[in-house]
């Protein structure tokens, strides 16, 4: 299935179908700024989630922390991700709708990985709060749902770039590097988690939070497109998106597609991989 035509990257909460009959709803709670861990997110999921939704753990299901030297959230191997999809009930023809709570980045990571694997997946605009507002008569479901496993096959993830490809793009300016982190981290004013402060040379800053309105829903495609175009994205030039660890940059890639901009790629190791290598130059400003 061609995921980019089967489902748009972002869908309105009011258009989300019920789980079942080839539809999987995924609850991917994660927060860039909060101190919560997976156990807390799982407990919150158990107190109430969209009916039929399955819980997805960003660290266990969408990352492989046994991999070293590839940033703080290395992508899982293709066979491991295929096994995760099968366990979650996501087959090649399944449609997946993913949501978060306060932060869409974790859900965006799942959606992007699925779309890059050729599976139809969309991010629910505004997450759980928007769904509850759009479906006031639908009670939230407590407890845990055990998904029904399905048969699936390994699929390569496309539109990923390596650290050496990023270095070439920075040197040759053959692609636009877009940093999705907050401006203060991009400039190098602060760096709370990674080895060095600053950003990859030649990168421009388009914080993923700039695409969100106060209620957590996305700004219009026209507004998002203007933000990227102001940063140098033309729709014809490859745009390599990165962040701290390859999670929040997924929001930028989906936002590009939402705005009708092509050629959005992801550097999954992101700045945590780049800054850990002392041979890689870092800029501050």
TrEMBL record:
Rhodanese domain segment(s): 19-139, 171-283
InterPro entries membership: Rhodanese-like_dom, Rhodanese-like_dom_sf, Thiosulphate_STrfase_CS, TST/MPST-like
Main enzyme class: transferase
Keywords, in A-Z order: Pyruvate, Repeat, Transferase
Entry EC number(s): 2.8.1.1, 2.8.1.2
UniProt-recorded Gene Ontology molecular function terms: 3-mercaptopyruvate sulfurtransferase activity; thiosulfate-cyanide sulfurtransferase activity
Coiled coil feature spans: none
Name of this chain's protein: Thiosulfate/3-mercaptopyruvate sulfurtransferase
Organism (species): Helcobacillus massiliensis
